[in-house]
Write a structure and sequence with these properties.
Layout: H1 5-27, H2 34-43, H3 46-65, E1 68-75, E2 81-82, E3 89-91, E4 113-120, E5 125-133, E6 140-147, E7 164-173, E8 179-181, E9 185-188, E10 193-194, E11 199-205, E12 210-215, E13 225-232, E14 239-243, E15 247-250, E16 258-266, E17 279-282, E18 294-301, E19 306-313, H4 318-321, E20 327-334, E21 342-346, E22 350-355, E23 360-367, E24 376-380, E25 392-398, E26 403-408, E27 418-425, E28 433-438, E29 443-446, E30 454-463, E31 466-467, E32 471-476, E33 480-481, E34 483-493, E35 498-506, E36 515-521, E37 526-531, E38 537-540, E39 548-557, E40 560-570, H5 576-608, H6 619-625, E41 636-640, E42 652-659, E43 662-663, E44 669-670, E45 673-678, E46 703-708, E47 714-718
Parallel strand pairs: 4-10
Antiparallel strand pairs: 1-5, 2-3, 3-6, 4-5, 6-7, 7-8, 7-9, 11-12, 12-15, 13-14, 13-16, 16-17, 18-19, 19-22, 20-21, 20-23, 23-24, 25-26, 26-29, 27-28, 27-30, 30-31, 30-32, 32-33, 34-35, 35-38, 36-37, 36-39, 39-40, 41-47, 42-45, 42-46, 43-44
Helix pairs in contact: 1-3
Protein name: Fibronectin type-III domain-containing protein
Pfam families: fn3 (PF00041)
Keywords: Membrane, Repeat, Transmembrane, Transmembrane helix
Length: about 725
C-alpha cells in the first residue's frame, strides 16, 4: 500500500529505533521494572494501546528479519521500454518482459516495507522509497514494472498527470541472483504529484526581523501556499508560519542571533514539496540591552602606600549583548573632585586602576558596533575593609585532554554567590579566558587547554558587588599543577603532639599529581590529611606519650600512589610544659608558705606574744636581785663638775657596763664594773680596781643604758669622798 512521505518518515524512525534496540539486546538483555510498566499501561487509552501493540509487532518482525536498508529508485519517461509481445507492460529492463503474468510471480511483501511514491511534474519523474530487509553482505538491483488492464501504446507517455497504472518493484540479489517481488501498488499520478522543492533566492535582515524570498521553479501549475520554518541554531524545535506569496517577513527575533530557514510549497492538490535546503542567516546588531554586573576589591601595597582598585564584571548573555561586544568602557571619579575623572577602554573582563583613600564613583558599560549598554554605577570606598576571604586549597590536575581545577572555601557570614575563574597562557597573557560558576560549585573543567603551554589560573570569590582577592596557581596539560612539595621535616615534638612542616616550590613533577596526602601511622591509630600549597605545617594532637609513629607524604595519581617523603618520630615521655606545670606551682606554694611562716611568727611575737625583759637573764640584773652581795669596800663615785643638764644640750651616750665574776675563798663575789661611754668629743671611761686595769675581761653578755653626755671636768671619788670637799664625818 502507498503511504504519505510523513508517515513513511515516522515508520522509518520507528524501525530504526527497533533495530537499534535489537542490537543492544543482543549484547545485554533489557530489564524492565514491572511496577513502571504496570503504571504506564494503566494510564494508556485504547488508541495508544493499539499503537504500542503495532510497534511491538513491527519490532518483532524487524528482529526476525534481521537487518534492513532504505531503497530509493527514480524513473523518467526516457528510461521506460515497451514489451513487444506484452502491450500491457512497461519495464526499465527488457529482461523483465518475460514476466507475462505478474500474478504468478512469488511476491514477498514483508521485504518491501513502507513503500511511498511521488511524482514530480516539473521533472516528469516518478520516485519510490521503501525499506527492504536483506542480508547485510549482499547487494541488490531494483527495477520497476508497470502494468495496466488495457494496452499501453507508448510507455514513455505513461508518466503524465492523468495516468493510472499498477506498480511492481523487483529486487535482484547480485550474489545469488535471487529475485523478489513486491505487492502490486495501484498508482494515481494526480494524487501523488509533489510540488517542486523551493529555492531561497534572497534574505534581508535587521536587528529583529528577517525578510526571505524564494522561487518554485518553472512549472505549468501555480503554487497556492507555502510554509516557512525557522529555528535558532543549536536548538531542536522549529517554528512554522505560512505564506501565499513568494516572500515573508519574520519579525520579533533576537538581535545578532543565527537562524536556520527552509521553505516547502503546495500546489493545492497532491503532496507538499520537500523542504528546501537550510539557509543560515544572522540578524543585525543592536545596542546591548542590559547593564553589566561588576564587583571589586582593593589591593594595597603597604610599603609603597599605593592602592589599586580591581574591577571584575561578567560578560553579557547573547540575548542581552545583541551583537559582538567589542570592548568595555570604565570610568572612575573621586566624588569630592569631579575634575579628576578618568576613562579607560579594555577588551578584558577585568580592570585595575590606581585610587586614593577616598570615595569614588565607578561606572562600567559594554559596547558593540550599534551602541553602548546602560551604565552600571557603584560608589566605592577603597579605605573600607572588605570581608570576602580568598579561596583555599586550590589545586589543578590533568585527565590527559583537559585541566580540572578544584578549591575549597570557608563558610563565613558572607555567602559567596559565584566564583570567577581566569586563565591565560604565559606566552599569550593578553588572551584571557573566563568562566563563572555558582557558589556551590568547587570543581570546574577548563576548556580550550593546549598542550605544551603553561597556564596561570586565578580564582576570585564573588559576593554581590564585592569580591575577594584571587588565589593563583600554575599548571599545564601534561603535569597538572606545577607545584612540588619539598623540605618535609619535624618542627617540634612533645608527649602528646607532633608538629610537621614542609614547603612548596614551582616545578614540573614527573607525574600528574591528583593531590598530596599527609598520613600518620601509630600502633593503634591512623590520621590522614590532604595538603595543598596554602598549607605549610600541621599538628597531630592527642597522641600517646613515649610512642613511635611514622609519617609519610603520599602523592596520588591516576595510576596509583607514591611516597614523597617519610619520617619516624618518637613522642616524649614528659615534655617541658608538663614538668613546668607541676614544678612552678610547687615552688610558688613553698615560697608562699615560707613567707607566711615568717610573717605570722613576727606578727605573733610582736602583737600576741611580746618579749618581756627578765632581769635573771642579765648579769647586772642577777647582781642587783641578789641581796647577799658584798662589795670590796671601795665605792666608785662619778664626779660631775659643772654639769648642766639642759634638755637642749642633752645628747645620748652609751655606757657599757661589763661584769667579771671571780670566786674568792670567803664566797664573796667581786663584780668589777667597766663602764665606757661613747659620744662626740668624749672618751671611754675605764675605771681601775684592785684587780688592775688589765684584769677585766669583757663578759659575753652586755647591757646598754642611755646616759647623759659627761663633760670633760669629771673625776672619780672613792669611799664616798669627793676630792676638794670635806667629809661629812
Amino acid at each position: 500500500m502507498l503511504v504519505s512521505q510523513k508517515t513513511y518518515a515516522v515508520d522509518l524512525l520507528s524501525c530504526v529505533v527497533f533495530s537499534t534496540t535489537k542490537t543492544v539486546r543482543e549484547r545485554k538483555p533489557l530489564r524492565f521494572k514491572q511496577h513502571v510498566l504496570h503504571t504506564d499501561y494503566e494510564k494508556m487509552n485504547s488508541k495508544r494501546s493499539v499503537c504500542v501493540l503495532m510497534c511491538v509487532f513491527c519490532f518483532c518482525f524487524c528482529c526476525a528479519l534481521g537487518t534492513f536498508s532504505v531503497q530509493e529508485l527514480t524513473v523518467t519517461p526516457t528510461e521506460l521500454k515497451d514489451c513487444e509481445e506484452q502491450k500491457k507492460l512497461c519495464v526499465m529492463s527488457s529482461t523483465d518482459c518475460r514476466y507475462m503474468a505478474l500474478d504468478r510471480v512469488p511476491r514477498i511483501p514483508e521485504n518491501f516495507l513502507n513503500t511511498s511514491c511521488h511524482y514530480l511534474i516539473h521533472e516528469d519523474s516518478l520516485t519510490c522509497r521503501w525499506i527492504q530487509t536483506k542480508d547485510v553482505r549482499s547487494k541488490t538491483i531494483s527495477s520497476f514494472i508497470f502494468s495496466r488492464v488495457r494496452d499501453i501504446f507508448h510507455c514513455p507517455s505513461i508518466l503524465n498527470m492523468y495516468s493510472t497504472f499498477n506498480l511492481t518493484i523487483k529486487s535482484k540479489s547480485v550474489i545469488n541472483q535471487r529475485e523478489q517481488f513486491s505487492d502490486v501498488y495501484p498508482l494515481f499520478i494526480k494524487d501523488i504529484i509533489q510540488a517542486p522543492r523551493p529555492l531561497i533566492t534572497s534574505v534581508n535582515v535587521t536587528d529583529s526581523s528577517i525578510k526571505i524570498t524564494w522561487t518554485s521553479g518553472k512549472i505549468p501549475l501555480n503554487i497556492t501556499k507555502c510554509k516557512i520554518r525557522y529555528k535558532l541554531l543549536d536548538t531542536e524545535s522549529w517554528t512554522e508560519t505560512a505564506s501565499v506569496e513568494s516572500q515573508l517577513v519574520i519579525e520579533g527575533l533576537q538581535a545578532f542571533s543565527e537562524f536556520a530557514l527552509s521553505v516547502s510549497c503546495f500546489h493545492g492538490f497532491g503532496r507538499w514539496s520537500d523542504w528546501s535546503h537550510e539557509t543560515r542567516v544572522k540578524t543585525a546588531e543592536s545596542p546591548p540591552s542590559a547593564a553589566l554586573s561588576f564587583s571589586y576589591y582593593v589591593d594595597s601595597d603597604e610599603n609603597a602606600g599605593i592602592r589599586w582598585l580591581v574591577l571584575l564584571w561578567k560578560a553579557l548573555d547573547i540575548t542581552d549583548a545583541r551583537g559582538l561586544i567589542r570592548g568595555y568602557e570604565v570610568s572612575y571619579m573621586p566624588i569630592r573632585q569631579p575634575s579628576l575623572k578618568k576613562t579607560m577602554n579594555t577588551t578584558h573582563l577585568k580592570a585595575v586602576v590606581p585610587v586614593r583613600s577616598e570615595e569614588y564613583e565607578v561606572s562600567v558599560c559594554a559596547y558593540n558596533s550599534a551602541g553602548r549598554s546602560p551604565y552600571r554605577r557603584l560608589t566605592v570606598n577603597p579605605s573600607r575593609p572588605h570581608d570576602v576571604p580568598a579561596v583555599k586549597s586550590l589545586w589543578v590536575y590533568s585527565d590527559g585532554s583537559s585541566l580540572w581545577i578544584r578549591w575549597e572555601h570557608q563558610f563565613t557570614t558572607v555567602n559567596v554567590s559565584e566564583f570567577a575563574i581566569e586563565w591565560s597562557s604565559t606566552t599569550n597573557s593578553e588572551h584571557r579566558h573566563w568562566e563563572r560558576v555558582n557558589g556551590s560549585t568547587f570543581t570546574v573543567r577548563l576548556p580550550g587547554i593546549e598542550a605544551q603551554q603553561m597556564y596561570i589560573i586565578s580564582v576570585f570569590p564573588v559576593y554581590e558587588s564585592l569580591c575577594g582577592p584571587p588565589t593563583n596557581i600554575s599548571a599545564d596539560l601534561q603535569h597538572g599543577a606545577l607545584w612540588d612539595l619539598v623540605g618535609f621535616g619535624l618542627l617540634s615534638v612533645s608527649s602528646s603532639s607532633v608538629v610537621l612542616r614542609w614547603s612548596w616550590k614551582e616545578a614540573k613533577p614527573g607525574v600528574s599529581v591528583l593531590q598530596y596526602r599527609l598520613v600518620l601511622n601509630g600502633p593503634n591509630e591512623t590520621q590522614t590529611l590532604t595538603v595543598f600549597p596554602d598549607k605549610h605545617q600541621h599538628s597531630f594532637l592527642r597522641l600517646h606519650p613515649n610512642t613511635r609513629y611514622s609519617v609519610q607524604i603520599h602523592g596520588e595519581t591516576t595510576d596509583g600512589n607514591f611516597t614523597k617523603a617519610s619520617l619516624a618520630i618518637n613522642t616524649l615521655l614528659l615534655d617541658y610544659d608538663e614538668m613546668m606545670r607541676f614544678a612552678v606551682p610547687a615552688v610558688l606554694l613553698l615560697l608562699i608558705f615560707g613567707i607566711f611562716s615568717v610573717l605570722s611568727r613576727t606578727m605573733c611575737r610582736e602583737y600576741f606574744f611580746p618579749i618581756i625583759a627578765n632581769p635573771r637573764y642579765s648579769p647586772i640584773g642577777r647582781w642587783l636581785l641578789n641581796p647577799h652581795l658584798q662589795g670590796s669596800g671601795k665605792i666608785c663615785v662619778l664626779k660631775l663638775d659643772g654639769l648642766i643638764l639642759m634638755d637642749q644640750q642633752m645628747e645620748k651616750s652609751t655606757v657599757q657596763v661589763e661584769r667579771h665574776v671571780s670566786v674568792v675563798s670567803d664566797h664573796e663575789d667581786e663584780v668589777p664594773l667597766k663602764i665606757s661611754a661613747t659620744a662626740e668629743d668624749t672618751a671611754l671611761w675605764k675605771p681601775g680596781s684592785d684587780y688592775g686595769e688589765n684584769a677585766l675581761t669583757p663578759s659575753s653578755l652586755t647591757d646598754y643604758i642611755d646616759l647623759p653626755l659627761l663633760p670633760d671636768s669629771s673625776g672619780y671619788v672613792q669611799t664616798g669622798q669627793i676630792p676638794g670637799e670635806r667629809s661629812s664625818d
